[in-house]
Design brief:
The protein is mainly alpha-helical. Helices cover about 75% and strands about 0% of the residues. Helix 2 crosses helix 3 and helix 2 packs across helix 6. The relative contact order is 0.17. The model has no long low-confidence stretch (mean pLDDT about 85).
Length: about 180
């Protein structure tokens, strides 16, 4: 088996594991909303934690925690994911990273990130119980779920929204953030 085939096998194994817990369209829609919100709050929470442990938030290093998390995920996805999905994921979560980092500057409260985390998890667990009729994949494979959930959402969006171009959206959003 070639290196490329091994990567595709890893991706397909993780994706299929996660997919079997997400067949109901209502549950998938809840995840499409909640997973990006959870990722956003993790980025913000990471930056706040960086601030609390002493990272100077006015210098070059101010967004190291969230950027490190983002780059870790993107490196893993670059290794295992099909190229189209990798680039779509890269752009989608880049928008969230930019938004989290810019929003982070507007308030010094960690409460907003905790509220988003709690609500995101509550809605996802409830959607599994009441819409999907199963338990979350997280209970059977926590690491696999945390790694696969973000890319699963992008894959769902790309498959179900033809013409999805996160690169263009990212460019427009980045320009907006630079100008305002």
């Amino acid at each position: 088996m070639s290196e490329k085939e091994k990567k595709i096998t890893i991706y397909n194994t993780n994706y299929n594991f996660y997919r079997k817990y997400h067949r109901n369209i209502g549950n998938i829609l809840v995840h499409i909303l909640c997973i990006p919100a959870i990722v956003w709050s993790i980025f913000g929470f990471a930056n706040k934690t960086g601030q609390y442990i002493g990272l100077d938030q006015t210098s070059y290093y101010k967004f190291i925690p969230s950027t490190s998390i983002y780059l870790s995920y993107m490196l893993y996805y670059y290794i295992i994911a099909p190229r189209k999905i990798f680039w779509q994921t890269f752009y989608f979560y880049f928008i969230i990273l930019i938004n989290s980092n810019s929003y982070y500057n507007s308030s010094n409260s960690i409460t907003k990130y905790l509220i988003v985390q709690i609500l995101g998890w509550v809605f996802q667990i409830a959607s599994h119980k009441y819409l999907e009729g199963n338990s979350p994949a997280l209970l059977k494979g926590a690491v696999q779920s945390f790694i696969t959930a973000p890319i699963f959402i992008v894959d769902e969006l790309v498959q179900n929204l033809p013409g999805t171009n996160f690169a263009l959206i990212t460019m427009i959003y980045s320009l907006y953030k630079l100008l305002y």
